[in-house]
Amino acid sequence: MGLTDLADGLTRGVESIGDSISEAFFEPVIRLGVTGLARSGKTVFITSLVANLLDRGRMPGLLAASEGRIEAAYLQPQPDDTIARFDYENHLSALTNPAPHWPDSTRTVSELRLSLKVRPKGLLSGLSGPRTIHLDIVDYPGEWLLDLGLLDKTYAEWSADTLERIAKRAQAAEYLAQLGATDGDAPHDEPTAQALAQGFTAYLTAARAAGFSDCTPGRFLLPGDLAGSPVLTFAPMEGASKRGSLRREMERRFDAYKSRVVKPFFRDHFARIDRQVVLVDALGAIHNGPQAVEDLRRAMADILSAFRPGRNAWLTRLLLGKRVEKILFAATKADHLHHTQHPRLTAIMEALTRDARDRADFAGAKTSALAIASLRATTEDTLTHDGTPLDVVRGTLLETGKRAAFYPGALPEDPARLLSPARAGEEKWLDSDYRIMSFAPAPLSLKPGEGPPHIRLDRAAQFLIGDRL
What we know:
InterPro entries: YcjX-like
CATH topology of the largest domain: Rossmann fold
Largest sheet: 8 strands, mixed
Protein name: YcjX family protein
Number of domains: 2
Strand content: 15-25%
Order of helices and strands: HEHHEEHEEHHHHHEHHHEHHEEEEHH
Radius of gyration: 23 Å
Shape: globular
Distance between the termini: 40 Å
């Protein structure tokens, strides 16, 4: 163990003791991490969750709300002054104004504190008054969580794995041609390094747009204030690294990325989370075909490695035995399907994360899977097509602004009908065509005490924080 690791461990130990004393003698704090890959709806999830905790008329599944024990809910300044505040007010305005639109997506770590004044239940209800429980919601990109897998790999291992995985992807053809024309043994040349990094970033951007999930390093897509820095100017190259060569400099920068970007994120943010929701655009992956589904399954397994610290010695020392207590896998955009198909979407979500969830369960974390819609953008209808009833959803199409009825195709009852061809590497679904449309948020007319309409957001909240209320 190096001096840096020892210092990290001591710092985390002091913070953990401080947190325990604070909860025991003052006001409990629940730190809820919210993450997911691109287009999974993190910003909308947090905005709708907070709005529905402030106005709880649509939260019957949250027992403390349905029992009337939440006397008040209010926003407070967050405890972490160096982290950006989640822009709740502007995001809510985007969803609720007369011409609603989807808010901007997650670009960096942000935080929001919601405080709940809750009456205890049972024997304690007559012995003490209401207590204040703080919910600190931490929003961060799922791509950053995938970076944990880099810590266990050398540059040579990462390069070999990456190049093998992308070899047959059309999105990688231009970068692979660029790489083939580059001599990694040549002396380091900064314009060449920058060109390769830009080419690899262009591949990652195209792969994410095509529905692939394994788009690491995550900061290449969300660089923030690191844009253009050497720590983000590397790319995968195979071969031995000779002193002074381009490939050796790529290796050095890869190692710097792990030590100066990945480790600080886990030390400063991830290590303090005790409840976690992972949002998944499963319908989007199904729409993009078997390879995208298999890629999503592997990404889920990689994400769960972060919740199994025993696999990584550095992370184990950092967390000092603390583990996330509950993890919810939520398949978003359930409002794109008629409710009769929601159980099938939940079953697919459970199957996609089965390997990862089994490992988390073994480590002591309680997990669950749900099909949800953080903000319901559609209504349901039944049409007759060729004499057969057809369950559809109606909504405003995002691209055209026109109202339309939509039938995405029937999801299979057996998730293996999707996962088997995905594991086999099939290029398209053999017996079905699954489609998905992008809907705009519907104009809202909310009654006093009601938050935005949703699907099972109350059940998600009950699983994540209900036991602490």
